[in-house]
C-alpha cells in the first residue's frame, strides 16, 4: 500500500494480522481504491469477534465534463461531438435528451454525437457535467471492505461522510464498545497527521 | 498385475494407437479429454508396461507422467461459495489437484463462515463421506479454526487434510479431533497463486494429499477389493449403453474403492445390480449399490475380499 500515507492492520494474532494486511491490500488494489484513500486503520479481534476499518479519504474532484471525453465542433446549425472515450457516453446522452429533447440529439455511430439546432454556446456544452464517479465511491468502498472482512461477520455498521469512513462488522450484535474502539482508531490516525 | 495411475499427454494425431495399446495391455482409461489439438488420457496401466507405453509414445511426441491421484475423488470443502473464498484459494487448490489427475468436487458449506454459527448439515456430511478424502480450506485465525473444527468434522469419516493460515505445528495442536494431514500458512487470500512461493505451497498441499491417499491405498491393499473400480467402469460402459448419453465430463467417476455412476438411481439401480462381470458374478454380488446424495446419482461401493470371498 505504497500510495497510502498511513496503513496499519492491528490484530492480537500477529500471523493472522499479516494475512489480513495482504488481503486488504489485494482487495483495494483490485477495486482500484488505493488512489482515493489517504489513511486507513484496520483492527481485527477474532476473539470478540470484531472487525473495524476506519479511514480518511483523499480530497478528489472527479466530476467528468463533456470536454473530458469529447471534442465539440460547432458547425452551421449543428454541433458535432467526436468521442474519445465511451465510458460516460450513456449518461451524457441521457443529459442531452433531457436538456435538448430527443429530436435534437442524434448518434450516427459509436464515436459521433450530433446536436441539431440547439441554442447554446459550444463552451457551455463543453462544461456540462455528465458524471460524478465519487458518488458511487461509498458503495465501492463498502463492497471492498465487505470482501476484506471475515465472511462470518455479517452484522455491519457503515458510516461515511466528510471524507471519512467507518466500517464495523461482527458475528454478534454490535454493542457500544464498538463506538469507543472506532474513536480510538480515529485518534491513532489523526495522531499520525 | 499391479496397475499404476498415469497421465498421457500428446497430440490428437495417432492417439488411438495409445488408447488401443493401453486397452490391449489390460489397462483402463479413466478419463479422456480432447482439448483443441491435445489429448489427455488419465489411465491405469500395468506397472511393467509403463516404459513400453513411454517408448511407443515417443515418436508421437507424447508424454507419460506419473499421476498418483488418477482414480481418486477429492472433496474440496470451502467454507462458502462467496467471493471471500472463490476463486482464490478454493479454485486454485481444486484446479491444482485436478492437474495431477484427481477428480475434485467443491463442497461449499451453507453454514461454514463464522465462528459461532459454523456447522455441517447432514447432506454436506454425506456428500463429503462419498469421496476418497476431503481437503478443508480454513481461514487465517487460530482461534476461529480451533473453535470451528469440532463442529465441521462431526460425522466425517473419510481422511481429512486441513489447510489454514497458522503454522503447521499450530494446526496440529488446535485441530480437534486430530485429522490425517495439515498444511499451514495457506489460509484465505485474495490473489491468484502464481509466485513460486505460492506454487510451492500448492505443491505442499498435493504432497500431503498424496501421503494421505497412499496410506489409504495401503489399507485397501491389506484387504483387497473384490473388483477394481476401473474394471467395473469398463463393464458398466459395455453393458449399460445409457451411460454414453450422459453429457457430464465424467459419467463414471472412479474412486479408490468405488464408483459414482451418473445415472438416475431408481431407473438404473436394478439393471446395474444384475449386470454380470464374469462367470455369473454380478455387480450386485460384490458391491453395494446405493443412492448418492449428489443429485440422483448411483454410488457403487466395492466390497472387500474378506466380505465376498471373491476377487475377479
Chart the SSEs and their pairings.
The complex is a heterodimer of chains A (193) and B (312).
Chain A: E1 6-10, H1 14-30, E2 37-45, E3 50-57, E4 64-65, H2 66-69, E5 70-75, E6 78-83, H3 89-100, E7 105-109, E8 112-116, H4 122-127, E9 129-131, H5 137-148, E10 155-161, E11 164-170, H6 177-191
Parallel strand pairs in A: 1-2
Antiparallel strand pairs in A: 2-3, 3-11, 4-9, 5-6, 6-8, 7-8, 10-11
Chain B: E1 3-11, H1 15-24, E2 28-35, E3 38-46, H2 50-57, E4 63-66, E5 73-78, H3 90-99, E6 103-108, H4 122-129, E7 133-137, H5 142-152, E8 160-163, H6 168-174, E9 181-183, H7 196-222, H8 229-239, E10 252-254, E11 258-261, H9 265-274, E12 276-278, E13 281-282, H10 283-286, E14 287-291, E15 298-302, H11 305-308
Polypeptide structure, described:
The complex is a heterodimer of chains A (193) and B (312). Chain A contains 6 helices and 11 strands. Chain A is α+β, with helices and mostly antiparallel strands. Chain A has 2 domains: 6-60 and 134-191, no CATH class; 64-131. In chain A, the strands form 3 sheets. Chain A has a 5-stranded mixed sheet with strand order 1-2-3-11-10, with helices on both faces. Chain A has a 4-stranded antiparallel sheet with strand order 5-6-8-7. Chain A has a two-stranded antiparallel ribbon with strand order 4-9. Chain A is elongated, with a radius of gyration of 23 Å. In chain B, helix 3 packs across helix 7 (196-222). The longest helix of chain B has 27 residues, at 196-222. Chain B has 3 domains: 3-66, ACT domain (Alpha-Beta Plaits), CATH 3.30.70.260; 73-220, Rossmann fold; 229-308. Chain B contains 11 helices and 15 strands. Chain A binds chain B through residues 13, 15-16, 19-20, 22-23, 26-27, 30, 46-47, 49, 147-148, 150-154, 171-172, and chain B through 79-80, 82-85, 113-118, 139-144, 165-167, 187-191.
Amino acid at each position: 500500500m505504497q500510495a497510502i500515507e498511513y496503513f496499519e492492520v492491528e490484530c492480537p494474532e500477529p500471523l493472522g494480522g499479516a494475512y489480513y494486511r495482504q488481503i486488504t491490500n489485494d482487495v483495494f488494489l483490485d477495486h482500484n481504491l488505493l488512489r482515493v484513500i489517504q489513511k486507513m486503520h484496520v483492527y481485527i479481534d477474532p476473539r470478540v469477534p470484531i472487525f473495524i476499518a476506519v479511514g480518511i479519504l483523499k480530497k478528489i474532484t472527479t466530476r467528468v465534463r463533456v470536454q473530458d471525453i469529447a471534442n465539440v465542433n460547432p458547425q452551421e446549425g449543428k454541433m458535432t461531438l467526436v468521442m474519445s472515450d465511451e465510458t460516460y457516453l450513456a449518461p451524457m446522452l441521457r443529459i442531452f435528451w433531457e436538456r435538448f429533447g430527443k429530436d435534437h440529439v442524434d448518434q450516427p455511430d459509436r464515436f459521433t454525437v450530433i446536436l441539431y439546432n440547439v441554442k447554446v454556446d459550444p463552451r457551455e456544452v463543453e462544461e456540462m457535467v455528465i458524471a460524478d464517479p465519487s458518488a458511487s465511491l461509498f458503495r465501492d468502498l463498502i463492497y471492498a471492505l465487505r470482501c476484506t472482512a471475515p465472511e462470518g461477520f455479517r452484522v455491519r455498521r457503515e458510516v461515511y461522510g466528510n471524507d471519512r469512513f467507518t466500517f464495523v462488522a461482527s458475528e454478534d450484535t454490535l454493542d457500544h464498545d464498538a463506538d469507543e474502539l472506532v474513536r480510538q482508531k480515529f485518534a491513532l490516525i489523526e495522531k499520525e497527521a | 498385475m499391479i496397475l499404476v495411475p498415469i497421465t498421457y499427454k500428446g497430440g490428437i494425431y495417432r492417439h488411438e494407437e495409445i488408447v488401443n495399446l493401453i486397452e490391449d495391455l489390460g489397462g483402463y482409461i479413466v478419463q479422456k479429454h480432447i482439448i483443441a489439438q491435445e489429448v489427455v488420457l488419465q489411465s491405469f496401466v500395468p506397472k511393467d508396461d509403463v516404459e513400453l507405453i513411454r517408448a511407443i509414445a515417443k515418436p508421437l511426441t507424447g508424454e507419460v507422467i506419473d499421476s498418483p491421484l488418477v482414480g481418486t475423488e477429492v472433496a474440496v470443502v470451502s467454507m462458502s461459495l462467496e467471493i471471500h473464498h472463490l476463486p482464490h484459494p478454493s479454485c486454485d487448490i481444486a484446479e491444482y489437484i485436478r492437474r495431477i489427475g484427481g477428480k475434485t468436487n467443491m463442497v461449499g458449506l451453507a453454514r461454514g463462515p463464522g465462528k459461532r454459527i459454523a456447522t455441517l448439515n447432514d447432506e454436506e456430511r454425506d456428500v463429503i463421506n462419498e469421496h476418497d478424502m476431503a481437503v478443508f480450506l480454513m481461514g487465517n485465525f487460530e482461534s476461529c479454526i480451533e473453535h470451528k473444527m469440532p463442529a465441521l468434522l462431526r460425522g466425517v469419516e473419510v481422511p481429512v487434510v486441513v489447510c489454514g493460515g497458522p503454522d503447521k505445528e499450530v494446526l496440529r495442536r488446535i485441530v480437534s479431533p486430530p485429522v490425517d494431514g495439515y498444511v499451514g500458512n495457506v489460509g484465505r487470500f485474495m490473489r491468484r497463486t502464481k509466485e513460486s512461493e505460492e506454487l510451492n505451497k500448492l505443491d505442499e498441499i498435493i504432497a500431503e494429499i498424496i501421503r494421505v491417499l497412499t496410506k489409504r491405498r495401503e489399507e485397501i491393499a491389506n484387504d483387497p477389493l473384490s473388483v477394481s473400480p476401473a474394471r467395473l467402469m469398463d463393464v458398466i460402459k459395455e453393458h449399460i449403453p445409457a451411460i454414453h448419453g450422459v453429457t457430464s465430463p465424467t459419467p463414471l467417476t472412479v474412486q479408490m474403492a468405488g464408483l459414482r455412476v451418473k445415472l438416475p438411481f431408481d431407473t438404473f439401480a436394478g439393471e446395474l445390480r444384475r449386470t454380470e462381470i464374469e462367470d455369473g458374478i454380478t455387480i450386485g454380488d460384490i458391491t453395494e449399490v446405493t443412492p448418492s446424495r449428489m443429485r440422483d446419482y448411483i454410488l457403487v461401493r466395492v466390497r472387500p475380499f474378506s466380505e465376498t470371498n471373491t476377487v475377479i
